[in-house]
Amino acid sequence: MLRPSPRAWQDRRHVSPDGGRGVTTFDPFETGFDAWPYDQYRRLREADPVQWSELLYGWVLTGFEDVNHVLRDPTMSSDLERASASPVVDLFRSRQVERGDDALTLVLRDDPEHARLRKFLQAPFTARAIEALRASVEKRVAAALDALAPRGRMELVSDLAYPLPVAIFCEMLGIPDEAGPRFREWTAAVARSLDLVISDDDHAACMGLLGEMEEYLVAMAEAKRAWPSDDILSALVHAEIDGDRLTEAELIAQLVTLYVAGHEPTTALVGNGMAALLAHPEQLERLQADPSLVATAVAELLRYDGPNQFVRRIATVPSEIGGHTIPPGDVLYAGVGAANHDPARWGDDADELRIDRHDAAQHLQFGGGIHRCLGAHLARMQAEVALTAMLGTLPGLRADGPITWSGRTTLRSVASVPIAWG
Ligand code: HEM
Fold this sequence. Notes:
This protein has 18 helices and 12 strands.
């Protein structure tokens, strides 16, 4: 097969070879993929749940068992340095070198370095620490809805789903909330840069914005070093565990990760979740009638259309997966979004939204194994509070125009959800 050059192949203007009609290989350019990628995932799974992608130069996994296994398999690395050369890996690396980036974030490290970094970050995100914040988040959401209610309509993402996690995270971190509007651009750029396919121009623009964000965080860290207060950033700047400290570069890399992870996916959880409920009015009414279902509902919304679609791993030993022998150095894209729709795990109604699905919490949106999401409790708690408050205080909640999608493939999210009430 003729392989497109790595640059051309990463170009967003690329068009599906068959015009988007029922492809059976991974193709984010297929018509309709933005709005609903799960049909394509099903076709991929039915054709071969572990298949080589000529687009990604890696294996795309779409079955629950395989994805679950890869996430927890200690022979699977998160470190791109372990990958064999390929046009895609070379491109990722050259972009990293251009930026002088050492990939210091815990997300891209393996144990023991990963475990060392995670130890510095975990205390504020335990279930107990997050539950202690619930009442203040409820107050904040109630105040936001009080201000919005008289308007009778809002654009959910910009009016609530984005500002809420920003405000909460700024408060936890001890960073002024006024930086919020600028952070929107920064975090969106980093989220976009995670896409499996992104052109050089788009990537360069994202990296420029990331540079600005890092400068800001360096300045904030400096300020906390000089004037510590009772917040996560001060704690991180001064943290010492058994005589070990984070270097400045390590600190900034973890902050960027926390910041992006703390905002974009939570916004997407609330936004995608509400979009799903609006498309299923009977489920929305059910939740409105019985708010005690909210924890299960949020788990089901994560399963049904959560933000995270792919987690990358590198095989470090020869691995047998789905009847394929995968050599060390090959890249695997574990399709967590696809796995969450696998009928072999979820039954014939895998593509349906059922807010009382008893085992929905077994979804793979938060990954699994040593890299399991650190912010899972925080994201869930915010979504539970936001949905409960909206359904409880905005009578006759309904769609107020078409929903638009961000077009991102890794961190999938709605771009806008116009809603009205009253
Ligand atoms: C709905 C919201 C969220 C989703 C779907 C999500 C998803 C994920 C996934 C799949 C991973 C594993 C990545 C891998 O294995 O390579 C992960 C890791 C991580 N997440 Fe989240 N996340 C969410 C919200 C948050 C929030 C609010 C925070 C804020 C603290 C956060 C912080 C992190 C961190 C620090 C890691 C790296 C953990 C490690 O490598 O040990 N996430 N997240």
